[in-house]
Structures are given as structure tokens and as C-alpha cells.
Design goal:
It is a single chain. By secondary structure, the protein is an alpha/beta fold. It is about 35% helix and about 15% strand. It is built from 10 helices and 8 strands. The protein is globular, with a radius of gyration of 19 Å. Bound molecules: adenosine-5'-diphosphate (ADP) and magnesium ion. Magnesium ion binds next to helix 2.
Length: about 300
């Protein structure tokens, strides 16, 4: 686990400053992006990152200019899933340059910054510094400071899409949504009762802060194995579709569990590229086209 060091006494990372002008600075930095979308989930391990990587890849292969921002600072996974090595010479004096991924994807991730001195997004290993004990400045605050720095310093430039792959949980969703004011949120969930309940709560929070939720993606909806003639159930079925209908949200896609997806991602390969003819790859590509269709034309104020 990593913890985030205190930022130096910089005026622009203080809570007061951030509350007053932070979101403006982030929005100015993201102003040339056609659609900034958060890929979120109330629970971890539901497939946000692998879906972000493949849907981002699918959009890029359709000729869109796409960046993925890995906003899971404690457990970044996009760089590994895309098979990227340490970037060549990230100039970090004035800002964070995205690294080049496959199919023209650009990527911002704390993974890329770890070896750079001094890091513009600062974090330390626990063995080098004791865990914070002061309840006055909990780790979560430091993490949102680091996210704030990352989002103000990332040099994303003009893009069609920025996909922000969040850490799990409502707290991060709330913090990043308020900083970025994205065009929309895509929620990923299983259909287990606990995941569905937490997803409903996350949607309510997003609506309270007036960020549109574009729809839900149901992941691990059935098990697709080589020896099976058909997709077999993996979790109790139907409850996510029911919640989506209660919330008046579309289900943007239902992805089966396919061991080859995890295996390809561990090798740093995009599933949509390696297994382009598989039903799962086709669903991931369809999700990309559906997202393009659902993105509202105008940025929400
Ligand atoms: N439909 C699926 N089939 C097979 N493996 C999957 C599927 N969805 C996710 N995984 C695997 O599960 C693990 C967790 O997924 P990940 O995208 O990291 O979740 P999250 O970002 O929500 O924490 C990864 O190893 C991923 O490859
Ligand atoms: Mg993840």
C-alpha cells in the first residue's frame, strides 16, 4: 500500500484554495475535451479498469482521440493492462505529459510518476514514513490532494474522450465528480445484491451533485468457458436490470466472465484486439459505440 505524503506548504493545495478555485482550474485544464467520463463503481474488483482499457481502446480504434486517466492512486492498473513500459522521458517541470499507449491511447497514471524526482504527485512508501496518525488530516484528504494535483497538471490537450478510471467507492466518486464536473458517469456492477445496493446508493449521490449517470454496465453476467455450450449463470441474475429500470437508467452492456479477458490483461494485451471475433469483444466495442451515442452534446454547467 502507498500513502500520500503531505504536500509542501503550497498555497494551491490548501483546502481553502481548492474549495474556492480548484474545480475551475481543473475544468480549465480539461476544457478541450469533448467528453470527460468517470468510470466508477461502489465496490472494487468489478471490472472498471479492464472495461476502461478496452472501451478506451475501442474508441481509439474508431479514430477517436482518447486519454485514460488512472485515478486509482493506491492501486493503479491501466499501465499494466495496456502493457506499457515506463514512459520515455516524461518532462515534469511544468506538467504531466501523458504517456503513449496502444492504438494512440494517451495515459496519465501515478504508475508513471513513481520513479521521477521530485514527483509532481507526491506519495511515499509506508516504510519510509510512518502512517499518518492525525485524525485532522486523514489519508483520504491526501489522496484527493494528489488527485487534484494530477488533474490540474495533466496535459491532456484536445481530445474526443477522457475516461477517468476511479478507485472503488462512493467517496472517490463524490470527490472526483465535484472536481471534474464530468459530462457523465458510467457505473460498473455485478448483479449480486450487495453490489446492486451499493450501486443504487452511488447513483443517488451522483444525482444529488447533478452529474448525469449515462448508464450501468453489468459485468460477470454469466460464465463463458471453452467447454460450455452456453453462457452459464455466475451470480444471481436480474437484480441489476431491475435496479436500472427503477433508476430509469439504461444497461449499457452485459459482459460475461471470460478467463481469457483476465489472462490477456495480465499479459498487457487488449482483449478487443486479441480476441476481436469473440462475443465479449463485440460487447465491449458495442459499449464504446453506445457511450458515444449517450454522451450529452453540451457540457453540464
Ligand atoms: N468479465 C470478466 N471476465 C474475466 N475476468 C474479468 C472480467 N472482468 C474483470 N475481470 C478481471 O477481474 C480483475 C479485476 O478487474 P478490474 O478491472 O481490475 O476491477 P476494478 O477496476 O473494478 O477493481 C482483473 O484481473 C480483470 O481482468
Ligand atoms: Mg481498477
Amino acid at each position: 500500500m502507498r500513502i500520500f505524503s503531505e504536500f509542501a506548504e503550497r498555497a494551491d493545495s490548501g483546502d481553502t484554495f481548492r474549495a474556492e478555485s480548484g474545480p475551475d482550474r481543473i475544468r480549465a485544464n480539461l476544457a478541450d475535451i469533448g467528453a470527460t467520463l468517470l468510470i466508477a463503481s461502489a465496490k472494487g474488483g468489478v471490472g472498471k479498469s479492464i472495461i476502461t482499457a478496452n472501451v478506451g481502446g475501442a474508441l481509439a480504434r474508431r479514430g477517436r482521440k482518447v486519454a485514460i486517466v488512472d485515478a486509482d492512486l493506491n492501486s493503479p492498473s491501466i499501465i499494466g493492462m495496456l502493457g506499457m513500459k515506463q514512459p520515455r522521458g516524461l518532462p515534469l517541470v511544468e506538467g504531466i505529459e501523458p504517456a503513449a499507449g496502444p492504438h494512440g491511447l494517451r495515459v496519465i497514471s501515478s504508475d508513471l510518476l513513481a520513479s521521477v524526482e521530485p514527483p509532481p504527485v507526491a506519495f511515499v512508501e509506508p516504510e519510509n514514513e510512518p502512517l499518518p496518525t492525525s485524525p485532522a488530516r486523514p489519508t483520504a484528504t491526501k489522496e484527493s490532494d494528489a488527485l487534484f494535483q494530477m488533474l490540474t497538471q495533466a496535459r491532456l490537450g484536445a481530445l474526443d474522450f477522457a475516461l477517468v478510471d476511479l478507485a472503488p467507492g462512493i467517496e472517490d466518486l463524490y470527490a472526483v465528480a465535484r472536481m471534474v464536473r464530468p459530462h457523465g458517469i458510467v457505473m460498473v456492477s455485478h448483479s449480486s445484491a450487495q453490489s446492486v445496493k451499493a450501486t443504487q446508493q452511488a447513483v443517488r449521490v451522483a444525482r444529488r451533485i447533478e452529474i448525469p449517470v449515462l448508464g450501468l454496465i453489468e459485468n460477470m453476467a454469466g460464465f463463458n468457458c471453452d467447454g460450455c455450450r452456453s453462457v452459464r449463470p455466475l451470480m444471481p441474475e436480474g437484480s441489476l436490470a431491475g435496479a436500472a429500470s427503477d433508476l430509469e437508467l439504461p444497461v449499457i452492456g452485459r459482459l460475461p466472465f471470460d478467463p481469457r479477458l483476465a489472462e490477456a490483461s495480465d499479459r498487457g494485451r487488449l482483449f478487443i484486439h486479441e480476441f476481436a471475433d469473440s462475443p465479449l469483444a463485440k460487447i465491449l466495442v458495442e459499449i464504446a459505440t453506445t457511450i458515444e451515442r449517450l454522451v450529452p452534446a453540451q457540457r453540464r454547467a
